Structure formats: C-alpha cells, structure tokens
Amino acid sequence: MPHAFVPDVVFGLSPMWVSTILLVCVYAAIIQDGINRAITALLGAAAMIFSGVLTQEEAMRGVDVNTIGLLTGMMILVSVSRRSGMFQYVAIRAAQRAKAKPAGILLILSLATAALSALLDNVTTVLLVVPVTLHICAELEVPPYPFLFAEVLASNIGGTATLIGDPPNILIGSLAGLSFNAFMINLAPVIVVIMAAQALITHWVWGRALRSTPEHQARVMAMRAAETILDPLLLRQSLGVMGAVILGFILARPLHQEPATIAMAGAAVLMLLDNWSHHSEKQTENVHRTFTDVEWVTIFFFIGLFIVVHGVEAGGLLQALADRLAAATGGNMAHAGYAILWASALLSAIVDNIPFVATMIPLIKSMAPAFGGEAAIGPLWWCLSLGACLGGNGTLIGASANLTVAGLAERAGVPFKFSTYTFYAFPMMLVSVAISHVYVWLRYF
C-alpha cells in the first residue's frame, strides 16, 4: 500500500474500526457458508470501497495479479491434460501396484495424492483421484471413507511442499516474493517426514483392518489401465508442457520471470497444441470448454478477498497487531515463529486457510522492521505455510480440498460428517504440527 494513500471514511468514522467490522462480517459469512464465498468476498470488497476505506484505484492495487495468473494458468493446464486420461491411469496403476490389497491401496493412493498435490493444486488433485477411488472401493467392496479421509490429509500435506501445491502457498510465495525452489528446499524435507508419520497412523487406525475377497481383488487386477488413456498424443503433449512449466518454476529466478507468466504461457501453449492437433475446425468451442473448467468461483473469491484484506491493511489494524505481537514475543524471532506456527494451525482448522493467510501475510510483513528487515523474516514465512496448510486438515472447513472431497463423497452416498472427520483428523493434524515445530526449531531457531 502506498504511504501517500489516506482513507476517507464516510461520516468521519475510524478506518480501522470500519475495515475490521467488514472483515469480521466477511469471515463470519464464509464460516456460515450460507452464501457462496465468492459473492461474500466481492460484497466485502464493494463495502470497503463504498465506505471510503479504499478508492477503486487503491483497491485494484491490493489485487495480486501473480496469484490470479498462476491459479488460472494451472487450472487451464489441468483442464486440458486430464482429457488424455492420465490421472485415471495413475490411480488404477497405483491400485494394481498394491496387488489390489486394501491396505496397500490405501497407502499407495495416499502417496500418489500427496505427490500429485505437490505438482498440481490440491483441489484439482482430489477432483481427479476421488472418483477413481470410489470406483476401486466399489470393486473391492470395502468402505471408501478411510481412503477418502487419507486422501484429504495427503492432499493438504503434499501440497505444503511446493509453491503451487496449496493456495496458501501461492499467496505466500507471490506476496512475499518467494520462489518455487525456496519452498522445495525449506518445506519438502519435513513434509516427507510428516507424510510418513501420517501413513503409519492411517494404517494403524484403518489399514490393518481392511479386508477384501480374492474375487474382488481379481476385478481390480483385471482393469485395463491403458484403456483410460483416451488420447495418447494429448498425453505426450501434456507431459511435455507440464514438465516445461515445472522446470520454468525451478528456473524462475535466473530467467527473471514470475510464476504466473510461466503458468499462463504453458497454458496457452498446451491449448494451442490441443486445438492444432484435434480441433482445428472447432477452436472456439474447445477454448470455451477449457475456460469453463476454470474454477471462476475461486478466482473471484481471491480477487474480493485481496481487496478486503488490503482495506484492513489501509485501516491500520494489521500494523497495530504486528506491533503487539512483536512486543509480546520480546523481539525474539523463535517465539514469534512458534506463535505463528501454532496460531495458524489452530485458526486454519476453524476458518478456511485461504482468507486467514491473506490476512496474515501483510501482518508478518509489518513485523519485519522489528526483526531486522524483510530478509531476516524468512523462517516466519515457513512457519505460516506449515501452520496454515497443515492446520487446514483439522476440520472439514479448514481447507477447500476437504469440502471438495466431502461433497463428492456425499454425492456418491458416502457420509462425510463434520464430527466424525474432526474426531480423527484433529489429533493427526496436531501430530503434524508438532513435527513441524521440532523441524523449525532444529533448522531455523
């Protein structure tokens, strides 16, 4: 926010109080989930402008185009590539790799979900993996809930490892100027440990008790994974372009390019190849189909949320909270990091971690002067990422992937209750955060 901007609130009201009340109202509406969260965020953004906390010009400065471009580009890439059938192929091969044994499938599908979530966003991953999981469970006649539960946790854990795996990381990386490599180097090591611990706990709770008959296992082994590949040419094109995009993320700093540019360029190239090879006479129809697959609700939710949080920043609340937190920790970086890690985890279990992280980023930036400048607060970003992404596993409303799986499950007749999920997930989430606490203590503090 430019220092020259001064809010001019209607009736001379306090910018801090008005922006804070609007933020609380937006959060309350998101938690209630009675109104679509994109509508809620956009109404909150409009209220920030009409109240005078922000002008339209200042509100647009709060929208991070890099985050919007990165999300949109990755959604387009996945929309085109999944038409080849590659994701269904991976799921079936994973089940067959485990010899169709339920406990082995539970482990391999969890690991596959975590790996895919590190390369794609976790919501997209579960949208691809869950339908195949339900089909495999139906063939084996085993309860699908343990598999879906494990995939929820794995998607959020795996997504924590990279810049593009989880929406909170996309926000942190874009607004804090952190690269794809920085996330991999700082977060991937602990995520491997957390995923191993998670797999052991899941096996102990459910895996060892899962049973299926030899006849049902034979059905899965008889599935022809190759038949899920509907378009071999598109598969090769998708793998080539997605590989180039990931390489571009890794080399973003030397190339002096932003992740959004790389993702959007990759999306444009894959759409070009797809149309050139298959739809030369129906390009407009095919492009419309691709853009329809983009989750515009998520995109506009981010736009509205950016404006709401920017209004709170302009009102002065975040700076006041940063001063309080810095004073409470006595200027001790370790204490601040631990506080951010645990507070982020517990709060992200209660509210969606996307709006929470969007609020925390400018708060942490405001703390930089107390700890020696922006270059010195790197560990705080990793604490925020670990806390928010892993904390999202704590309840059904903690992360978008959780609600996505719950919706798919209930549509298929599989109960996915808030209380049951929380009973198992919250303790597992605490274990993952405790491991993260030890990790940041050993590595940074």
Structural description of this entry:
The chain has 445 residues and is mainly α. 46% of the residues are buried. The model has no long low-confidence stretch (mean pLDDT 88). It is globular and about 75 Å long. It has one domain (10-61, 86-228, 295-443). The protein is 75% helix and 0% strand. Helix 10 packs across helix 22. It is built from 22 helices and no strands.
Q: What is the fold's blueprint, element by element?
A:
Layout: H1 15-32, H2 37-50, H3 56-61, H4 65-81, H5 86-97, H6 102-119, H7 122-140, H8 145-159, H9 167-176, H10 180-205, H11 214-222, H12 232-250, H13 252-255, H14 259-278, H15 283-293, H16 296-315, H17 317-328, H18 333-350, H19 353-367, H20 378-391, H21 400-411, H22 418-443
Task: Provide a concise account of the structure shown.
Helix content is 75%, strand content 0%. It has 445 residues and is mostly helical.
**Helix count?**
22
Overall body shape:
globular
The share of residues in extended strands comes to: under 5%
Total number of β-strand segments?
A: 0
> Which class best fits the helix and strand makeup?
mainly alpha
User: pLDDT under 50 segments (min length 5)?
Assistant: none
Radius of gyration: 22 Å
Ends apart, CA distance between termini: 31 Å
Q: Quickly count the domains.
A: 1
